Each structure stands twice: as structure tokens, then as C-alpha cells.
Amino acid sequence: MDVLEPPRVTERPPQDYLGIRLVTPFRGMLGKRNDLLDELSSWLANHRIDDAGPFFLRLHVIDMNGPMDLEVGAMTPPPVRPADHRARAGDGRVRPGMLPGGRYATMTYRNHSLRANRALLEWTAAEGLVLDRRESAAGDIFGCRYEAYRTDPRTEPRKTKWEVELNLRLAD
């Protein structure tokens, strides 16, 4: 894993997005992410939404031994014209959402997502930071946990080359 920006705490405003959410097994999750990135890219192009980005993978519920509740999205500016509202309202499969504002533990890396996640979780624990997360029978439920792809997957297909910003929302 290449750490491009070390762990730190940052304040983020709320962020509009369009995304596709589903539940899938942990095994094969990244293949499903890739399929959803392709599907969302096509949907955005077909709806002439060209100001979306960066793309991201949001993990709503994590169960490493079972189903993962995840969402692939693209950040968008708020709608400003009536036509924007219609397109940005989604269609049932693609839906609008908002990444909540607040304080986040964040780091930027390239390659080895599991190692990066482990490193950021260890750093937050060592710093005494509390994540916006709770345990349930379904797994760990996160207020907001996502990887923003600083590298556009539409132009760089090699995932090992992607610059990824990992974000874990902290409890208030």
C-alpha cells in the first residue's frame, strides 16, 4: 500500500450524490463494485449529467462473513434548474442521496484497500477517536464510511493505479 496522504481528521460539508445501492456477499464485492461503476457511468452519460464526480464506494453495513450493504455513487452539485431536479431524482435504480457532513478520519492511498482500511481503523483507535458506527445482527452499521476515487475509473482501468481517499465519519 502506498500512503499518499497520512491519516488525519477533516471537516466535510454534506455532499449530494447519485448512487446505486445493493446487498452482496463480501466475496465478489469488488467485482460488483466494478459492474455498478460501469452501470452508473452509463446512466450519467445517458442522462447528460457531466458534472458528476468523483465516484465512490460507500459501505453502509459491513459483515465480512456475510452480506455487505454497499452503494456505488458519484458526487454531484445540488440541482439548480427544474431539468436538473428531474435527472437528479434518479429512476428507481439510480437514486439521489447525501453523504452527511461532519468530522471524518481520512487518508489517501493507492492499492491494497484492506490494508488501508485496517491502517485507518488502527490510527483512529490509537488517537482515541470514536467512529459513527454501531453493531447489529446484520453487521457493523456506519453513519458514513466511503472510498472516494480521486482517479476516474472511466479513464484508468487499472485499480492498482487509483488514488483512493478513505473516509470514516466520527461520532459527534
Automatic annotation (TrEMBL):
Matches recorded under InterPro entries: Reg_factor_effector_dom_sf
Name of the featured protein: GyrI-like domain-containing protein
Domain of life per record: Bacteria
Lineage: Bacteria, Bacillati, Actinomycetota, Actinomycetes, Propionibacteriales
Annotated SUPFAM superfamilies: Probable bacterial effector-binding domain
